[in-house]
Write a structure and sequence with these properties.
- The structure is a single chain.
- This protein has one helix at residues 3-11, and strands at residues 21-26, 37-42, 49-53, 70-74.
- By secondary structure, the chain is an alpha+beta fold.
- The longest helix has 9 residues, at 3-11.
- The relative contact order is 0.22.
Length: 79
């Protein structure tokens, strides 16, 4: 999905005052939570949005699936 498609999808919601939640993952700390834990939390763009731009990155091998990619990650991994 492209950002412009996401914006159009969000604009289609009738209730524009609905709260936006994202999944936040934390690393496991012991035997019983080896895979970590995930919970929902209120979206905070300063903590839950990561933009990655690999266009022109000299360390990306030519032909790689992520060559010249741009991604927007919403949520948090290993927070």
């Amino acid at each position: 999905m492209k950002v412009r498609e996401l914006v159009a999808w969000l604009n289609a919601f009738e209730d524009q005052d609905a709260e936006v939640l994202v999944v936040e993952h934390t690393s496991g700390t012991g035997y019983y939570d080896q895979g970590g834990n995930a919970c929902t939390t209120v979206f905070d763009p300063t903590q839950h949005a990561e933009y990655t731009d690999l266009r022109g990155n000299p360390h990306v091998p030519p032909g790689a699936s992520y060559e010249n990619s741009r991604t927007l990650l919403l949520g948090a991994i290993n927070a």
